[in-house]
Structure to design on (334 residues):
């Protein structure tokens, strides 16, 4: 055949009606076993595979689930992708990965395009505002990671609590004026960390200088480092490890010793955090567990026997101390 085989071809080859062929492939219990076997054999010989759209028309389900992330190149999301994909694969679902390119508009376009073709979606660190996100949550089954939605299930990774741990670590080393190089303005996680830092700073007797927003990419670390040096601080907490990597690069270019003159802390403990020099002190997050838990919550919602209700899974973080933090210097090198 010069074109992909269709259900009509399978029906003709097995000598049954198209409706019978469809039932034999999707609901085999509704036709006798001899006919079902003949249809399956014809489908195998022709190389026929039911399309997601065809399955959706017959069952109302495509067995496809989307995972939307703000930046598919950011290693923070690798663990979430692995955890989500493994859990969905175990239940026979196809996993569709979508890059929202740190754009609210791109994220909404993707949701509109996906709505007819997927059974549900996991949104990791969504950049949509509260109203848009809540509206989409009523369109189709959805679970969020690090982006709570009223009356919807989700997973929260406590990076904010980890940021408080990191500030306490710096305070114990004698740092009294610390910068926070923040993430995207639309990031819920960033807003939560700023609130935790304000509270922790008062308790610890530390002054926090808030900088940014910065895009969480390594190349944006140069601007963040320059701002940090201008702020007259002895340490910096970066929104994520990529930004921290860029800060380390820029400080090295400018001859600033780390940690002798400036301590640097990242967040997420992504691949490479222990390979940069000095090794990056950072907040370790159980990202693969977060992806697995999010897929678990979504599959529960897709189960017709699910009793309903919402669940929030909270996962703790912890500080990993490496060589990028040290005792506060007597003066700041700029």
């Amino acid at each position: 055949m010069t074109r992909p085989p269709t259900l009509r071809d399978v029906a003709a080859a097995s000598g049954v009606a198209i409706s019978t062929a469809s039932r034999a492939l999707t609901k085999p219990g509704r036709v006798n076993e001899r006919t079902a076997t003949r249809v399956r054999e014809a489908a195998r010989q022709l190389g026929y595979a039911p399309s997601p759209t065809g399955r959706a028309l017959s069952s109302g389900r495509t067995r496809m689930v989307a995972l939307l992330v703000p930046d598919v190149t950011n290693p923070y999301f690798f663990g979430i992708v692995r955890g989500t994909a493994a859990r969905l694969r175990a239940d026979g679902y196809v996993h569709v990965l979508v890059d929202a390119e740190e754009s609210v508009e791109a994220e909404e376009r993707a949701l509109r395009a996906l709505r007819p073709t997927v059974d549900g979606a996991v949104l990791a660190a969504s950049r949509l505002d509260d109203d848009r996100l809540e509206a989409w949550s009523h369109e189709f089954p959805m679970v969020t990671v690090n982006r709570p939605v009223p009356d919807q299930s989700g997973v929260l990774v406590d990076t904010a609590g980890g940021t408080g741990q990191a500030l306490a670590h710096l305070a114990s080393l004698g740092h009294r004026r610390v910068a926070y190089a923040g993430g995207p303005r639309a990031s819920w996680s960033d807003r939560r960390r700023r609130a935790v830092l304000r509270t922790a700073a008062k308790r610890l007797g530390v002054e926090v200088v808030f900088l940014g927003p910065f895009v969480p990419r390594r190349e944006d670390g140069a601007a963040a480092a320059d701002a940090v040096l201008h702020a007259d601080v002895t340490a910096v907490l970066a929104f994520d490890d990529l930004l921290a990597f860029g800060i380390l690069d820029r400080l090295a270019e400018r001859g600033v010793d780390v940690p002798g003159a400036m301590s640097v802390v990242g967040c997420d403990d992504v691949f490479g955090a222990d390979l940069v020099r000095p090794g990056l002190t950072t907040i370790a997050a159980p990202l693969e567990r977060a992806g697995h838990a999010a897929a678990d919550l979504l599959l529960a919602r897709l189960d017709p026997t699910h009793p309903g209700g919402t669940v929030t899974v909270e996962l703790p973080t912890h500080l990993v101390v490496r060589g990028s933090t040290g005792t506060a210097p007597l003066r700041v090198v700029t």
